[in-house]
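Fold this: Pleckstrin homology domain-containing family F member 2
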Amino acid sequence: MVDRLANSEANTRRISIVENCFGAAGQPLTIPGRVLIGEGVLTKLCRKKPKARQFFLFNDILVYGNIVIQKKKYNKQHIIPLENVTIDSIQDEGDLRNGWLIKTPTKSFAVYAATATEKSEWMNHINKCVSDLLSKSGKTPSNEHAAVWVPDSEATVCMRCQKAKFTPVNRRHHCRKCGFVVCGPCSEKRFLLPSQSSKPVRICDFCFELLSAGEMAACQPARSDSYTQCPKSPLNDVSDDEDEDSSD
């Protein structure tokens, strides 16, 4: 079906409409062979709070952006190559239901659909697109992904030292390796994580010690049904999360 739609006028028209909705600030989306599979509003778990985002699934990329005017205008376009994507279901918890993790080497985050049926359809379509891409390219699925940031609301104190209380003056920060919410003194170090940035990024002291010692795997995400978790150090505890709308 995808092959049949690739060069159809209807598909080209649909992609053009999506391009226009993002305006001049968005990247061109029309390329030979690209097909728009589906679209819809999902709730993205961001640093400050869950926020509605418009998502577009193509046969080779996943695109999302902020909703300015529904069906007419979006901004802050993000494009994720599907070859780098793995997804994992999340157990329902409180008001957050019908969710799954979208994990990539650069950025990982949780999204939630309105219904269980919608969640199933999104996950099935994403998995099918990823499988088809990897089959054609001969590549293997990515086994490295960025940490899923813990929302600010989950941490009233630093998740490393367990002492520093967060206030308007004592800001929350996020370790780019484990995703935990940490205070400034516990995250003064920088480390180069090539999959996330060309420059050294903020990480917590615990992850810095592990990375400096070459123990990369010890700080890899360990659970797929919850927020990223790192092993406890003898002295400290851990946790963190952040959103693209914030600077840190």
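Confidence is low (pLDDT under 50) at residues 221-248. Helices lie at 2-5, 9-22, 116-137, 205-212.
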